[in-house]
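Tokens as discussed.
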């Protein structure tokens, strides 16, 4: 959604296919526009709930088990100044917002590796919700809630054993490389 380069989405899809060992990951390369009426000009942000509804429609029209939308916009949710992403918990629908994942947002120079690491963490996090997981108290589990970009950088791109076990109950096999070992 928006102007997210397709190369990043394709890279992300490859990583997700690695992470979820028994899943088939497909990229739908059609560029979507954020829903009309979701933009709040005073905030300069989109209302995440409306974007998530759009993702839910996409899931329905494609017939996939889970849909992840990568949106190069800034979004908020009532009561929150911004969100890095949002999901319908257990509903197979997730969105990641990439604007605040870019070092440039914080006045720094571009850093592709760092940006992609953040993108992958947030995708694993929101998809975890989409598959039914809540937030995790383990400080380095990817399902740990992140209040800001420092907290995104502090957690790993791996699921703890508890979260991986719950994913398995939902039918998702997490590859070893994406599992916390302790
Ligand atoms: Zn979360
Ligand atoms: Zn966990």
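Sequence:
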């Amino acid at each position: 959604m928006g102007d997210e380069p397709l190369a990043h989405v394709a890279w992300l899809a490859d990583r997700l296919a690695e992470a979820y060992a028994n899943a088939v990951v497909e990229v739908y390369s059609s560029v979507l526009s954020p829903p009309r009426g979701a933009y709040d000009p005073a905030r300069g942000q989109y209302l995440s709930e409306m974007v998530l509804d759009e993702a839910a429609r996409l899931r329905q029209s494609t017939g996939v088990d889970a849909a992840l939308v990568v949106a190069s916009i800034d979004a908020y949710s009532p009561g929150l100044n911004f969100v890095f992403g949002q999901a319908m918990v257990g509903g197979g629908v997730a969105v990641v917002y990439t604007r605040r994942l870019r070092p440039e947002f914080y006045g720094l120079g571009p850093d592709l590796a760092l940006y992609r690491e953040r993108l992958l963490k947030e995708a694993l996090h929101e998809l975890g919700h989409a598959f039914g997981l809540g937030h995790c108290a383990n400080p380095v589990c990817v399902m740990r809630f992140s209040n800001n970009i420092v907290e995104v950088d502090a957690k790993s791109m791996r699921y703890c054993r508890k979260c991986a076990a719950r994913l398995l109950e939902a039918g998702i096999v997490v590859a070893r490389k994406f599992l916390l070992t302790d």
